[in-house]
Amino acid sequence: MEPIILSKNNKLKKNYLGKILKNFNLICFATSEPGMGSDVSGIRCLAKADGSDFILNGTKYWITNGGIADYMTVFATIDPESQHEGICAFLIEKDWPGVSVGKPIPKLGQRCSNTAGLHFKDVRVPKENIIAPPGEGFVLAMQTFSRTRPVIGAFAVGAARSAMEYAIDYVKKRRAFGTKIVNFQAVQFKIAEMYQKVETARLLTWKAAWEADNGMDPTISASVAKLYATEAAQEVVDEALQVFGGYGYTKMFPLEKLLRDTRLFRIYEGTSEIQRVILSGFALNGYQPVMPALEDLPMLRDRDPVPDQPAGKDRTAWRCRMCGHIHYGEKAPDACPYCFFPQNAFKKIWPRL
């Protein structure tokens, strides 16, 4: 429902959100395609304008609840070559002419989750069912992900917590070498690592959800939560299975299923690699540092007094921007005595302007 909630189409919200609430209709979210996943700007599902309506042709894939949903929020493009600039979004009903649903996709894990492909052949979408017009769909998709990624973090926290609790229960009962294995420090340290990761993931997920609930932009916190929680869950479940030994590898215990199910967390709603792209981009270009630039660090010293120069904070100081050497004096030296860079490599850092 998130694209509808975030949409500017208030009439659409009133109509469909009311039906979902009253009738418990189900809805799915469709961006991915057989040849496109993380690269949302690479959408090929085509929406062609026909008067005030659009005609939709194309296929969506990996759609959670695609086979059982009554409604679909579908992202398409008016021109595949225009990338993000042509992306739009629509509300589609499953029983409309031209809508087809594929067989459930067989998966390694999360087999209880219906995942299917959707195919659209000359599906007419009326004007009132436009969630986002061309040019606004990409931003809407990104806004949607920033609010749904914390949910995946919550999935991961729950799975990791379950694995940890099963492991705690097991180590308190299993005996080896004449004692319960909980008495071995190696096992205790494994439990400690599990607990730390579960609690850290939980707090990061809460932070991202809190930002979304309070009208803030949760994009960065959502990526942090999604990245950390999903990778931590995989590590916790794997270690829990290790604690169980051979029993953990059997279907008689829940660890093998948790291991299969949690593996998907690092893939859907944006892979771990995509989260790293988002976070590195923010850290390098959007993050506002609290520390000064290296070349502005005074690093004043009282040793090596300079003749005719006052001590400490009253001295004039210059910093070599290449090697960091601090020179005291009314003017910078002709050359740095350490790296030999010329006078113009020095910056006056004290007194501050």
Description:
The protein has helices spanning 2-6, 10-23, 137-171, 185-213, 219-244, 255-262, 272-286; strands at residues 27-30, 46-50, 53-64, 71-77, 87-93, 99-101, 115-125, 130-132, 175-176, 179-180, 317-320, 326-328, 346-350. The chain is α+β, with helices and mostly antiparallel strands and 353 residues long. It has three domains: 2-135, Butyryl-CoA Dehydrogenase, subunit A, domain 2 (Beta Barrel), CATH 2.40.110.10; 139-286, Butyryl-CoA Dehydrogenase, subunit A, domain 3; 294-298 and 309-350, Rubrerythrin, domain 2 (Single Sheet). The protein has a four-stranded mixed sheet, with helices on one face. Strands 2-3-7-6 form a four-stranded antiparallel sheet, with no helix packed on it. α3 (137-171) packs antiparallel against α4, α4 (185-213) runs antiparallel to α5 and α5 (219-244) packs across α7 (272-286). The radius of gyration is 29 Å and the shape is flat.
- Supply the helix-strand structural class: alpha+beta
CATH C-level name of the largest domain:
Mainly Alpha
Rg calc: 29 Å
Averaged pLDDT: 93
Looking at the overall shape, the CATH architecture of the largest domain is: Up-down Bundle
Q: SSE string, helix = H, strand = E?
A: HHEEEEEEEEHEEHHHHEEE
Strand order of the largest sheet: 1-4-5-8
End-to-end separation: 54 Å
CATH H-level homologous superfamily name of the largest domain? Butyryl-CoA Dehydrogenase, subunit A, domain 3
Largest sheet, if any?
A: 4 strands, mixed
Q: How many strand segments?
A: 13
* Whole-number total of structural domains: 3
Strand residue content: 15-25%
The helix tally amounts to: 7
- Uncertain residue segments: none
- CATH fold category name of the largest domain: Butyryl-CoA Dehydrogenase, subunit A, domain 3
**Percent helix:** 25-40%
Outline = flat
